[in-house]
């Protein structure tokens, strides 16, 4: 499994890549493996501020639907249009082309409270 060191992680299996006062968010390699074949991603919070640990959308796999949780309070700026047409990108490239949303962070310092790659790896017993 892949755990890029430059990312931050949540116990709910989201990853965050900070880019200034914005961030890109997706689900981890571990999460996509657990879900199986992803068939649909539903995000209806574009333009909204979503509080930390609140649901910002759902991800549907062949066998289940899971909520997606906001790692830190942020405003959803955009969704990844590529996963609309090709949701399997979340499976094949979870840290790259399979990203889910771009957000504007309410407080970039809040990211410091998220898990490091090593801490997340321990969390999932990898």
List the main descriptive attributes of the protein structure presented here.
OB fold (Dihydrolipoamide Acetyltransferase, E2P); 6-stranded antiparallel β-sheet; globular; 3-stranded antiparallel β-sheet; 126 residues; alpha+beta
Structure overview:
It is a single chain. The longest helix has 7 residues, at 29-35. The protein is globular and about 35 Å long. The protein has a single domain (8-121), classed as OB fold (Dihydrolipoamide Acetyltransferase, E2P) (Beta Barrel). The strands form two sheets. Strands 1-2-3-9-8-5 form a six-stranded antiparallel sheet. It has a three-stranded antiparallel sheet with strand order 4-6-7. It has 126 residues and is an alpha+beta fold. It is built from four helices and nine strands; from the N terminus they run βββαβββββααβα. The chain starts with 7 loop residues before the first strand and ends with a helix. The model has no long low-confidence stretch (mean pLDDT 96). The chain has helices at residues 29-35, 81-85, 89-92, 117-123, and strands spanning 8-9, 14-19, 22-27, 38-42, 49-50, 55-61, 65-69, 74-79, 101-105.
- What are the segments in which pLDDT stays under 50 over at least 5 consecutive residues? none
Overall average pLDDT: 96
The share of residues in helices is: 10-25%
The percent range for strand residues is 25-35%
Strand order of the largest sheet: 1-2-3-9-8-5
Give the tally of structural domains.
1
What's the architecture in CATH terms?
Beta Barrel
CATH topology: OB fold (Dihydrolipoamide Acetyltransferase, E2P)
Structural class designation: alpha+beta
- The CATH first-level class comes to Mainly Beta
Cofactor: (R)-lipoate
Protein name: Glycine cleavage system H protein
Keywords: Lipoyl
Function: The glycine cleavage system catalyzes the degradation of glycine. The H protein shuttles the methylamine group of glycine from the P protein to the T protein.
């Amino acid at each position: 499994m892949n755990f890029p060191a430059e990312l931050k992680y949540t116990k709910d299996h989201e990853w965050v890549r900070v880019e200034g006062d914005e961030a890109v968010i997706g689900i981890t390699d571990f999460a996509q493996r657990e879900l199986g074949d992803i068939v649909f991603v539903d995000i209806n919070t574009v333009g909204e501020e979503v509080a930390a640990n609140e649901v910002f959308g759902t991800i549907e796999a062949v066998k289940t639907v899971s909520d997606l949780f906001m790692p830190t309070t942020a405003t959803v700026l955009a969704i990844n249009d590529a996963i609309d047409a090709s949701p399997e990108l979340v499976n094949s490239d979870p840290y790259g082309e399979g990203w889910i949303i771009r957000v504007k962070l309410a407080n970039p310092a809040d990211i410091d409270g998220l898990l490091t790659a090593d801490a997340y790896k321990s969390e999932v017993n990898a």
